[in-house]
Amino acid sequence: MIDNESVIGRVTRISGPILFAEGLGACGLYDVVDVGDSALIGEIIRLKNGIATIQVYEDVTGMRVGEKVVCHRRPLSVRLGPGLIGTIYDGIQRPLETLFESSGAFLLPGERSAPINAEKKWRFVPDAAALEQVSSGQPFPVSGGTVIGTVQETASVTHRIMVSPDVRGGTLAWLADEGDYTVNEIVAKTELGEEIRLSHWWPVRRARPFREKMTVSEPLITGQRVIDVFFPLSKGGTAAIPGGFGTGKTMTQHAIAKWCDADIIVYIGCGERGNEMTDVLSEFPELIDPRSGRSLMERTILIANTSNMPVSAREVSLYSGITLAEYYRDMGLAVAIMADSTSRWAEALRELSGRMEEMPAEEGFPAYLPTRLAEFYERAGRVTALCGKEGSISVIGAVSPPGGDFSEPVTQHTKRFIRCFWALDRDLANARHYPAIGWIESYSEYADEIRPWWDRLDPQWNTVRVQALELLKREQRLQQIVRLIGPDALPDTERIILVTAEMIKNGFLQQSAFDDIDMFSEPAKQIMILAMIMSFHERASRIIKSGAPLMKVVNLACREEIVRVKTTYKNEDTAGIAAVELRMNQQLDELERMYRKAEVRE
Ligand SMILES: Nc1ncnc2c1ncn2[C@@H]1O[C@H](COP(=O)(O)OP(=O)(O)O)[C@@H](O)[C@H]1O
Ligand SMILES: [Mg+2]
């Protein structure tokens, strides 16, 4: 499509997905271009001395110098409106699902398809107050972000139709009645003649505006005990999950995508193997949200940029994803976005930078790698949206350091911009202790901010987490001694620490993503288990102090039972769990009585 505003240039040089073109001096940085005879989608990423550097999002095989480049004078944008949820996109918001089905392959070069179904009609319900004011001739003020009505996008998601933040606003001159509309149809007009549709475009590299950033206050419950209790993430927080190959980055992100209590999930499969994305595609629609009882796809958007797709599309996929996340945040929803893996994204950045002949910095990454990472993570947060409602974006980025070495640039720079660090431990993974989140190296800086939330649910949360983490630290020191001189050198009062640490690891921290009961642990169950183990420890230590040999405690039947609570009792079966605790206390009571008597006799 060539219109009056288009600028036409010519390709002068080709370097993989990076092209150089002349004649585009009048265009803007980050303008979208159609490149060559098959009109491949590209973006101007540098303008210097009349030469435009263009990154092409599609396979450039066969492209020749001299082919034309058409610039439409608009930035790379995503389309935002009902119909995003449940879709799987590539990095530039082309729906892949239909193409997977029809051709079994990826998009054809230059292929365009509407980002959201243009034919589908949505039931639009105008805002009652707005409709009344407009129809009675009173001014109803609108500005960017004003909600003018709703569409039930899926059974779980009420989609608020908002005025684009780019609209000047004023008062509404007209608002549509309740009815069925496509995303292209106009549902309101301002008195300045601005048209408001069910959808609008937004440039992916520009963060969507909000009214105010707020401090975080609520956890993002993931159902994974090591996360929720030890290293919690907040709604609006940022987390990194670094780990070598096969340590469980993808599994952990999938578990969070499935079970966390966000309203919307944006999952970006970024540069990883294609079959992982296929797994997601086949598995997610089958899964049921434990809270709503509905399919998890009814709250999920997938972005797939597997290793065999163009690197430029991978570079931009993070921005597309976070823009979709911001759009739902702006409606007042809690969004969680996962990127697997940000290292592959950084590698795309490195490749593109190399082709642009930029000066490389550490390990060949461009000097702006930290800036780009910061720009991505900074779009997380808890905000008051323009519409006045509270929304949040939590960001979880997987990092795959080569050789699992966390001192490399992507892990190190990421650490500066995140506040929650789930360090995957090779030794734990080798021992098949999953999730292999190491409790010594990992941290969360959100514990204080979200503590009031937990205090309302169960005030033991902070006590038991601090006690358990402390105990595991002591265990680590004791293990060093054991390695040197053997366990027999330790007194029973210290060996009980090793016993309890095993219980924490096996009965609390280990959580199989494949166990039907244990894959998702409700907060109440999480605390019940850990509180029981810590109470066992406290009482057992006291009994040992009063003379009982360690083996008496180790041989108690309840010990095994406590470790199996996680996989035996469903979340709702709190009575079953309480009964285990009762039996534990009876057995400990008995032991205590025996040794109290012994004490008295002496
Ligand atoms: N929570 C978990 N429960 C059970 N198995 C797990 C868990 N996390 C990881 N695994 C095992 O580890 C393997 C590798 O995990 P994966 O997430 O693919 O690693 P990565 O993405 O870091 O390369 C999985 O195939 C699975 O067998
Ligand atoms: Mg992986």
Gyration radius over CA: 28 Å
CATH top level of the largest domain is Alpha Beta
CATH architecture of the largest domain: 3-Layer(aba) Sandwich
Our count of domains comes out at 4
Structural class of the helices, strands and pairings? alpha+beta
What is the rounded distance between the termini? 98 Å
CATH topology of the largest domain: Rossmann fold
Would you count the extended β strands for me?
26
The average pLDDT score comes to 92
Low-pLDDT sequence parts: 102-106
Q: In what range is the share of β-strand residues?
A: 15-25%
Name the ligand types. adenosine-5'-diphosphate, magnesium ion
Major β-sheet, in short? Answer: 10 strands, mixed
Give the number of helices.
17
- Overall spatial form: globular
CATH homologous superfamily annotation of the largest domain? P-loop containing nucleotide triphosphate hydrolases
Helix content: 25-40%
